Request: fold
Amino acid sequence: MTSSSPSNRVEIDVEVNGRRRTVAVDARDTLADHLRNDQKLTGIKLGCEHGVCGACTILMDGAAVRSCLTLAAQGDGRSIRTVEDLSDGAALSPLQEAFKRHHALQCGFCTAGFLISATELLESNPSPTRDEVIEALSGNLCRCTGYQTIVEAVLDAAGQIGN
Amino acid sequence: MKLPNIRYASPASIEDACDLLSADEDSKIIAGGQSLLPVMAMRLAQPSVVVDLGNVPGLTDLEEAGDYIRFGPMVTHAAIVSSPAVAKHLPMMVAAGRHIAHPQIRNRGTLGGALAHGDAAGEWPLVLLALNGMVEVQSVRGRRTIDADDLFVGPYMTTIAADEIITDVWIPSHSDGWGYGEFARRAGDYGLANVAVVMSTEGSQISNARVAVGAAVGKIQRVPEAEDVLNGSELSPERAEVASEAGAKSLSYISDIHGSAEYRQGLVQELIRRTIVEAGART
Reply:
């Protein structure tokens, strides 16, 4: 909602993982702060908090964005999906299954961000090439895996293994 | 780090946004926030009020307007890179836009924000200068137009006043030859040296050459010494060599942990040479 009077509290109307609610946030809160602290969606991780590592990546109106580089107030009127929404209860999504199969994670801190970036890619481009996968994941850092298994997992989920 | 304490306003019109900027000299516009929020997190900026343009209608237009493409300031990098009109009329922007950070940043970052931020390593400031574009700005004092040649004055410094907002970006459609080159140690990093070249030919002679350099030299700037070698001459690999050497020699370079001044000069010289050759091949 629009307001021409500056305030340090802001009311936002935001849909998160299919549930819409109106909440008050601090003006200084990033979307990551709000989703983790107020909505308890701690699958989102905060690594660098200035847009470098990609661990906080979420989908906003279908586009992968850094939730640490978006103010909570800028989430007003938006539809947000986080890693918590990818599985159906305990049933993992095909992409998550592929990550498990390929050992595409070790410590897991970066995993939510990778899953979200890969989800955006596969939703817009269901049959990506290896180069397209690498480009889509270029903004996510992983310090454990060396990336190869992550790229393999995304290609597998897309049915592109061996292509 | 967490962001500093701020107040937030979300005006419904450019006029309201201008009023907010004029009411408090420490207020700051937020567009996509992909540069502003990191500098706030690192306490390099601490605005009193963040004025969000996200709810002002009409700022994401991208349209052909006569001999120009007109962009609203809130058009995202991703929208530019995937626009058929941009691909047709301003293909340099597609090539340059792909160098901007990573897809997740390009989904949020905006053209107006990048130009106002005026980062010497920024792709859009360099492209605007090479393509001879302009920005239209508004404040409570009125509207004015600033040519790219008069826009960038130093690192993160532009001639846009603190109370002015970019409302439109105009870039002339180009049928000229163009080249864009950027060197970064990893894909998505800020370039160590960025170069954009535009030129046309009359008969076999080069005319209207515009050679622009960013990153390595700390300020988005044209390179008249290279342009002078090109204009009125016939393009050849040797001419590109001479122009790049004269151009690179005329600039002064940053030196830091990422590379010495000498190294950056070498990068700039080679990128100027390559982009001239590319531009020549496209005329």
Observations:
- The radius of gyration of chain B is 19 Å.
- Chain B has a mean pLDDT of 96.
- Chain B touches chain A at residues 1-12, 16, 19-20, 24, 27, 30, 33-34, 37-38, 41-42, 48-52, 54-55, 78, 101-105, 107-108, 187-188 (CB under 8 Å).
